[in-house]
Amino acid sequence: MGESLTYCIADPPYLGRAERWYGPSGCGHGNGEGRASSHEQAYVFDSPDTHRQLVETLQNDFDGWAIAMSVHSLSTYLSIVETDSRNGIRVAVWNKPTAITSGSRIVNNWEPVLLKVPKSRRGHGKGLTCHDVLTCNPPRNGFIGAKPVEWTLWVMQMLGVQDQDSVLDMFPGSGMVTKAMTVQELQLGPF
Predict the structure, then answer these.
(1) Cβ-proximal residues to 101 (8 Å cutoff; 6+ apart), any chain
(2) pTM check: above 0.85
(3) What's the gap between Cα 142 and its chain centre?
(4) Which of 42, 86, 122, 187 would give a disulfide with 22, using CB separation of 3.0 to 4.6 Å?
(5) For residue 1, is it within any domain?
C-alpha cells in the first residue's frame, strides 16, 4: 500500500451565475428556486475573490483537488493558479452532448475542470491511464449543476485517487459526488 493522500472535489456555485441560479440571498429566490438548500451562501460565489479564497484553501489543505466551473470562469481560475505541467495543474473537458441552450447564440456544450494532481500520482505507471475529456450527459435530477456519477469517477481517476486516500466533497449539493465516491469505494475498498 502506498502513501495516503487527501483530495477535495469542489463544485461551487459558478462565478457570475450564483445569484441567477440561487437568488440574491443565496437560496430560493432565483431561477433555481428551492434547489439550493445546500448553498445558502451561494451569492458570495459571484465574486472572483471568493474563488481565489477557494483555490488558496485547496492549495493549502489538500494534496490534490478538482474544481468544476463554467467556461466563462476558466480565465479567472487560470489567473489565480500557475499552470505548469510541473506543478500538476491540468485543465480537463467535460463534453455534454445534450446541453440546453441558455439564450446565447453559441450553445455551450462543455465545461472545464481544473485539477491539481499530486506529484506522486502524475507519472506513467502511477495509476490507470485516462483521458482528459469525458463525454456524458448531465443527470436530469432537478438540481442545477449536478454532475453524473461518471464525472466524479473520471475526476478521481485523473487525480490518481487510491483506496487508502480520503476524498472530501466540498459542496455536497445534489449528492451525486458522494454517490460516485460510494461506487468508487465498492471498487477500490474504503477511503
Answers:
(1) 107
(2) no
(3) 18
(4) 42
(5) no
Render pLDDT for 128-146 as a digit per residue (tens, 0 to 9).
889 999 999 988 766 667 7
Radius of gyration in angstroms for the set of CA atoms belonging to the chain, rounded to a whole number? 16
Rounded (5°) CA angle 137-142-145: 55
Range of the domain at 162: 6-188
Query: 103: Cβ–Cβ under 8 A, 6 or more apart, which residues?
Result: none
Burial call 80-102: b when 16+ CB within 10 Å, e when fewer: bbeeeeeebbbebbbebeeeeee
How far, in Å, CA of 88 to CA of 31, rounded?
A: 37
**Nearest-5° Cα angle at 52, 138 to 88:** 70
Residue 110: strand pairing partners = 95
List, for residues 59-104, the tens digit of each pLDDT value.
999 999 999 998 888 998 998 887 665 788 999 999 998 876 666 7
Residues whose CB is less than 8 angstroms from the CB of residue 123 and which lie 6 or more positions away in sequence, other chains included: none
| Angle formed by the axes of helices 176-188 and 149-159, nearest 10° | 60
Which of 113, 112, 81, 109 minimizes the C-alpha distance to 97? Answer: 109
CATH classification at residue 32: 3.40.50.150
Mean pLDDT over the full length of the chain: 80
β 110-116/64-68 pair status? antiparallel
